[in-house]
Design goal:
about 550 residues, alpha+beta, DNA Methylphosphotriester Repair Domain, Arc Repressor Mutant, subunit A, TATA-Binding Protein, five-stranded antiparallel sheet, globular
């Protein structure tokens, strides 16, 4: 067999060729295949005939393939796949840069703004991303703009000029040239050819098909989110009978739900760079392995916020996780094996706003879930921004750090010590000394948080799981964790729980969700820090 050409970065050409020849969907989004004889690039699972190895090149990103002169395959749509799990999970510069680029930072602040957030010069950042991903920040942002434009062309009736500027292009000419180069067609033809497949939308809505690796335990994500709903900010609706497992793991073209069964829905308000918006997602379990889709609908004040809203939706759904790798490790463990078999593809629900997640975590310290939701509802009513939406029950944005930083802790509906911790964290989030937007290394974020009065390791680690997407965090002192281990026949203290969890690396965050899931079924419990890590109660508090 002829040896495949050298691949950029750490890709093994031989392994990439074998994955592409077998059409293994597990590698979709991990690398992309360029075909020199046709000038197109594909996902590894493309159903087209596998080219000869001498005609194949392998790329770390769709942007790298586009930079090399390849156009997107019209059959497998290689830009419509989950991203590389390493980008989502890695705490290195490339991983942090990808999260910020997906959030639209380059469009809003330029390459200089991106580099400044990461603490590098633009030139050095370009070298790092070129070595790691095969493309620089401008090329990566351009690929994201092209995908955003395709979404708008397929799901809205916006004029082509409006699509161009909403997607982040500087001019209509740049938009037209990019679409022709990436998709080998004009924007008008792309809209006409894909209009029927996009499905109906309500005027003003943008419909997303969020690709996820399968299996995907969507109903478990919904149960977690439903258990933590805050009035005014979030709502949930149970699914209809038979919704579970209704939608299969198809390609990125994807099938709609079978038999008309409706998945469970979760909706919430969004605080975005150019104005408020709303998100609604339909969640159901998707079998695997492969690539499936989660349906989502967005309403935005300004369509320039579509990239940021899309990236935050993916974070909320943990859409870039690799369930097969996690299930393989945890499923072989004698403690967690039965739990993984019962609930394959379990995800760690993320967030749409890291600051909100951190503030909600502090409010929930030392109270049960129902109590935390009550207090948070009062906090939203008193300090949240009122918004007008078309989603029933969505009336407010969660209070911003700037707003809460100016509040007198004594007026908050909680003990004064916790109120002071909340206001102190809000001030740190507002002035940037605690950065939960993805540009700061996770270890540095943790150190900054635990340095604040009233913020202990449990709180910082829980925030790392939910707000920063850390895949390998465990909370051995958590009461629910110890109760779950006891019920599984492994009674132990915090030290014993930590020892048991060593076998679950690097997926201890997923293991944590499996344990929480067993304590209260079907609803997740409210995780509670051990007494030693809770803020000291103020005897003069309310």
């Amino acid at each position: 067999m002829t040896t495949a050409p050298a691949a950029p970065g750490d890709l093994d050409p031989g392994a990439c060729y074998r994955a592409a020849a077998s059409r293994d969907r597990r590698f979709d989004g991990v690398f992309w295949v360029g075909v020199t004889s046709t000038g197109i690039y594909c996902r590894p699972s493309c159903p087209a005939r596998t080219p000869a190895p001498r005609n194949m090149t392998f790329h770390r990103s769709a942007a790298a393939a586009q930079t090399a002169g390849f156009r997107a395959c019209k059959r497998c749509l290689p830009d419509a796949v989950p991203g590389d799990p390493e980008w989502d999970l890695a705490g290195d510069v490339a991983g942090r840069a990808m999260r910020l680029i997906a959030d639209g930072v380059v469009d809003r602040e330029g390459v200089e703004g991106l580099a400044d957030r990461l603490g590098f010069t633009p030139r050095h950042l370009g070298r790092v991303l070129g070595d790691r991903l095969g493309a620089g920040p401008l090329a990566l942002a351009r690929a994201r703009r092209a995908q955003t434009a395709r979404t708008l062309l397929e799901t809205t009736d916006l004029s082509l000029a409006d699509v161009a500027f909403a997607a982040g292009f500087a001019s209509v000419r740049q938009f037209n040239d990019t679409v022709r180069e990436v998709y080998d067609t004009t924007p008008g033809d792309l809209r006409r050819r894909r209009a029927a497949a996009a499905g109906p939308t309500t005027p003003g809505e943008v419909r997303l098909r969020v690709p996820v690796r399968t299996p995907y335990a969507g109903l478990a994500v919904w149960r977690f989110l439903a258990a933590h709903v805050v009035a005014g900010v979030e709502t949930t609706t149970p699914g209809t009978e038979g919704a579970e497992g209704a939608e299969g793991a198809e390609g990125a073209e994807g099938a709609e739900g079978a038999g008309g069964a409706e998945g469970a829905t979760y909706a919430r308000t969004l605080r975005l760079p150019h104005g408020p918006g709303t998100l609604r997602v339909r969640l159901r379990d998707l079998p695997g392995p492969g690539v499936g889709q989660v349906e989502a609908w967005l309403r935005l004040t300004d369509l320039r916020d579509l990239p940021a809203a899309t990236a935050r939706t993916r974070r909320l759904l943990d859409a870039d996780a690799d369930p097969l790798a996690a299930d393989a490790t945890l499923g072989a463990d004698p403690v967690l094996g039965p739990l993984v078999a019962r609930q394959p593809g379990l995800r760690v629900p993320g967030q749409v706003d890291g600051s909100e997640t951190a503030l909600r975590t502090v409010v929930g310290q030392q109270v049960n879930l129902a109590g935390a939701r009550t207090v948070l509802g009062r906090l939203v009513a008193a300090h949240g921004e009122t918004v007008s939406t078309d989603e029933p029950g969505l009336t407010h944005l969660f209070p911003s750090p700037e707003t809460l930083a100016a509040v007198d802790p004594g007026t908050l509906p909680m003990p004064r010590a916790r109120g002071r911790a909340l206001v102190g964290l809000a001030a740190a989030l507002d002035d940037g000394s605690v950065d939960l937007e993805g540009g700061t290394a996770r270890a540095d974020v943790r150190a900054a948080m635990v340095a604040l009065p009233g913020i202990g390791p449990w709180t910082a680690d829980y925030v790392a799981i939910r707000a920063l997407g850390h895949p390998d965090v465990f909370l051995p002192g958590d009461l629910a964790v110890r109760n779950a281990l006891r019920d599984l026949g492994h009674p132990c203290d915090a030290k014993g729980a930590a020892a048991i969890a060593e076998a679950w690396r690097p997926w201890r965050s997923v293991a944590l969700l499996h344990l929480w899931h067993t304590v209260v079924d079907p609803m997740f419990p409210s995780p509670q820090p051990p007494p030693s890590e809770r803020p000291e109660e103020d005897p003069c508090g309310p």
